[in-house]
Amino acid sequence: MSDSELFLCLLPSILALLLIFILVQRKQTRLNLPPGNMGWPFLGETFGYLKPYSATSIGEFMENHISRYGKIYKSNLFGEPTIVSADAGFNRFIIQNEGRLFECSYPRSIGGILGKWSMLVLVGDMHRDMRTISLKFLNHARLRTHLLREAEKNTLLVLSSWKDNSVFSAQDEAKKFTFNLMAKHIMSMDPGMAETEQLKKEYITFMKGVVSAPVNLPGTAYRRALQSRSTVLKFIERKMEERMRKMEEVIEKKAEEDDLLGWVLKHSNLSPEQILDLILSLLFAGHETSAVSISLAIYFLQDSPTVLHQLREEHLAIARAKKQSGEMELNWDDYKSMEFTHCVINETLRLGNVVRFLHRKAINDVRYKGYDIPCGWKVLPVISAVHLDSSVFEEPHQFNPWRWQNGNVKGNTSTSNHFMPFGGGLRLCAGSELAKVEMAVFIHHLVLNFQWGLADKDQAMAFPFVEFPKGLPIKVQHQKLV
How far apart are CA 67 and CA 71, in angstroms? Predict the structure, then answer.
């Protein structure tokens, strides 16, 4: 075939593509898109958006864009045209219309590493079913008894290893605590055992890949994470097969349901692949975010002596009452009585912003405050921008737990739609109450038994995941207040 004949064959396709391009361009010129800059072709402004910055700020990129374009602007992020929102009202609108106007839309690399059945990337009925399973297992009765008790047991195990005047990474210790708790909670794995330590080692490699650039080349963190994912899944699969054999052997007796694996095997119709991805995603969600939140609390408290004093007074009162009654373990009434502690937790989550933004996509053409959001465009509600907005929270960069007392925040209740550390709506984090229990129990024993300070200068940075670059090195001294 000659070149001219080939050109004539391809001409209809070329004209069709050109026509589609012209129609798309005409449609966009008719739309009233928010102002903004689409940046470089394909890459857009992604690198600028993901440039590390202090976790207690919104970063230079967001500050510049908000001052230039306003709280709602367009960009090109993660290879897609995107509407970015730092507007409290629009963020609430997005979350309220989950499944109707918007749906979850994380980058493909996240699904590749967490799995296609991960709750983080699922949408629609499948997400609802997975979330329902998690909520049934994390029910109130289980939180009040089993999970509270396990949280205290694992807290004491970690704190018992802290030597007087020693220096160590508080971030690593917090991760040790939350990993041990989740491994026990999910698969009945005891801390310190060889298999638990091996799983932890593989999981750390896996986590480094989750927060790295999605470059699947030899030697990259992402490639190593995919390899560790395979190892972790094989480990979980062996556990699942062992559990299924045990359940078959114990026909007349009650099957083991003390962990999530046993519960899911007995009470759900999920396939083995779905169970594996569910367990991996819950291990990720329950370990990483809670560990960072505890690290943030340790960081904020060491620099806030007035807050720490009131916190100690509250926990001293609880400890003295328990000693007088002859009780040892914390119970649910103790947890609920930690009123100022809950203020500290809220303020830690507000200022530290472990979850900084959500990935959503418009599934219909949407109009909001005169702006058009075309169907198929990515939408990023930036939670941290609202939490650090002076029109919503007075002096937002100050660590001020008292702002949450009596449930009042600038005229709004503490369940304000502007405070969304765990997301909201249909995708509200299933483990939100467990995370707060972990934080409260850890804080209780920490403030009663230790004083601490930074051994080296460090601060929480957003990469975009929040992390302390030096691991939050602290020096501790024992104290016995009860």
Answer: 8
